[in-house]
Model the fold of this input.
Amino acid sequence: MIFHVLTIFPGFFQGPFEHGVVAKAIQAGILDLQVHDLRNWAKDRHKTVDDRPFGGGEGMLLKAEPIFEAVESILAGGVPGGARSGHVVLLSAQGRLFSQETARRFAMFDELLLICGRYEGVDERVAQYLADDEISIGDYVLSGGELPAAVVVDAVARLLPGVLGNEASTVQESFSAGKGILDCPQYTRPAEYRGWRVPDVLLGGHHAEIRKWRRQAALEKTARLRSDLLKSFEKECDDE
Ligand code: SAM
Done:
C-alpha cells in the first residue's frame, strides 16, 4: 500500500516511522510512505501556500490551488489531467472521528493520500471538492495535521497483511471487528510485584477458564472506562 502525505513540514515524518512495525513494513516493502512538500506546488518564488481568510478573522489558511494541483499531480503520476488513483483524506478538527472501523476501511485502498492542514486550517473547497473523507483524530485542536496523519498511517499500516507477525493479534484487540469492547487486561512476569498478584486463573494453564476470565474482565474494564462501547455491544448482542 502507498501512503502519500502532503505537508508543509516534510521533515516531521523522519522520526516517527523509523521505529517499530511501520519501519519494518517499509523495509519489507509492504508499505511505501511518500512525503510531499506542499511548497513544491507554490506559484511564487517565496513558495507561498497560505493566505488571509475572506471576510476577515484570525490567522492564515492553506490555499486551495497548491493542494488541488499537488493531489492531482501525485495521484495521476504527474500526468496533467490524468486519471486519479487513490483515496484522499483531509485531516481536520471538524472531520468525522477516526476509529478502528475507519482504519479497516482505509486499509482496503491501494493508495491513500493524507492532507495535513496548518495555521487556521484549509480553504473549505479542499474538503468540499477534493477530499473523499474529512477525518479528525479527536475532539481537540492540534496545531497541524502531521500528528493526525502519523496516527492514521500507524493505525492503518498495522492492519495490512504481513505487517504484524501474528495476524490474530489485530482480531483480539480493543475495537476489533465483531468484538466492539476493549481488550482484556494482560499481565507478564513477575507473577507478584510489590504485593500485587496476577489473577491466579492466568497462572493455571486452564484454557477454557482463562478465556472465560478474559471475557469477563474485558467486559468489566469496558463498563468502567468506556460504557458507551458497552451500550452498542449489548445492543448488537440483543439483535443477534
Ligand atoms: N481553525 C480550525 C478549527 O477550529 O477547526 C483548526 C485549525 S488547526 C489549528 C490546523 C490544522 O491542524 C487543521 O487544518 C488540521 O489539519 C489539523 N488538526 C487540528 N486538530 C485536528 C484533529 N483533532 N484531527 C485532525 N486534524 C487536526
